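Deliverable D2.4 — example input (structure tokens):
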């Protein structure tokens, strides 16, 4: 029978549970309520074009680290987003954020 060994809340609003399985293995379960982030992104999307007042920087998305870990796991079987080469990160971001499935991570119109 599985037993929760510890639960912690992290600074990024994720909840981590450490679960001791009956076979001795340890399972790490991460959870995050994405509703506040998605609502904020929707508001930003309709607010303006994403550019700063000086027009030199444009914000186009807000993706929580937990989602980046999931996308990395889909891509190469690990969850270390920051261990991927920059060109691979860009490829994943373009594919995911240009998809209508993940449109609520976008904070501005257009395609990447």
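Example output (designed residues):
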């Amino acid at each position: 029978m599985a037993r929760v060994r510890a639960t912690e809340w992290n600074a990024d609003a994720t909840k981590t549970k450490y679960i001791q399985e009956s076979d001795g293995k340890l399972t790490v379960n991460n959870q995050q309520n994405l509703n506040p982030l998605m609502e904020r992104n929707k508001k930003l999307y309709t607010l303006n074009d994403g550019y700063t007042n000086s027009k030199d920087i444009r914000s186009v998305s807000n993706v929580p680290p937990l989602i980046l870990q999931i996308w990395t796991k889909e891509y190469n079987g690990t969850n270390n987003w920051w261990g991927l080469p920059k060109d691979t990160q860009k490829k994943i971001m373009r594919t995911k954020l240009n998809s209508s499935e993940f449109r609520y991570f976008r904070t501005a119109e257009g395609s990447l």
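The chain has three helices and three strands.
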